[in-house]
Write a structure and sequence with these properties.
CATH topology of the largest domain: Dihydrodipicolinate Reductase, domain 2
Strand content: 25-35%
Largest sheet: 9 strands, mixed
CATH architecture of the largest domain: 2-Layer Sandwich
Shape: globular
Distance between the termini: 82 Å
Low-confidence stretches: 8-16
Helix content: 25-40%
Number of domains: 2
Oligomer: single chain
CATH superfamily of the largest domain: Dihydrodipicolinate Reductase, domain 2
Amino acid sequence: MRLVSIMLALYLWANYIAMLRVGVLGVGHLGKFHLNNWKEIEGVVIAGFYDPNDQIAQEVVDKYQIKRFTSVDALLDACDAVDIIAPTIAHFELCKPAITKGKHVFVEKPLANSMDEARELVKLAKEANIKFQVGHVERFNPAFLAIKNMKLEPMFIEVHRLAQFNPRGTDVSVILDLMIHDIDIILNLVKSNVKNISANGVAVMSDTPDIANVRIEFDNSCVANLTSSRISMKKMRKMRLFQKDAYIGIDFLEKKTEIIKLSSPEDKNVFTFDIETNHGKKTIAISNPAVAADGNAIKLELEAFKTSIINNTETAVTVMDGFRAMDVAHQILEKIASAIVH
């Protein structure tokens, strides 16, 4: 009987070692969503969590039966990778020791609190040769994934991201809170350098801009107009892409995608109609690509992070992706500050 018990213990230990041990840093509102999803991902075990708030920490221990670590270093020593969902101001101080100890890092957007911190994290991550993913979750929105196989070469982009006011998240401007999602996607879509940025913003309910309008011009002549607000009466998260012979509408909130383009012979099972133009009759095709009804963007991004570690492949949203989005966001903030001064 004792031999059987020993063999069972060794079997369980071997399986535990084979699993990816993830430590969670920050278990507030969003952190709990991450915990729920990590628990559902195969091949992962939550090694424990760290959160300085005693009340929140006890609630998590009671609900999830997960070990609480009282120091960051102790948690880092017990895991292979960390998931950092702490306030932006703490990103650097949590990422740096994790990288130094050779741990893979997932950190919520924005990458860091300042460009100097972001630059150092890029340097440290490259030197340590670890996997580093930034939580730009809209990359995994099923409405966006529905067009991942479509050739996208937008020349004009219009974005509206509107939210109702919520004190949570106002530690950063609306640019770093909301607009950075769209900045990341646009930089991912437009394969060209930023040429010029124009921006205006107003601080209404907080000490930083709560509503902003931005125009980004690229070297390839693409133009993107972005409006973000966290003081709106209704929610909206829409992006419209215009390119030669096609219009693509993405509704991140309702998880719907629409494509309107000039029809071609391979357009099957789509609604078409004819229009008269100066160049003769044209056939227009309207389609709604299949969108995964049960698409869980947070779970998908965490699964992608785990896969990049297991397969030793590049992360879906790299540390440089996070840096570039932050760089443009901070240029926008500088433009807004300059407009206010003048």
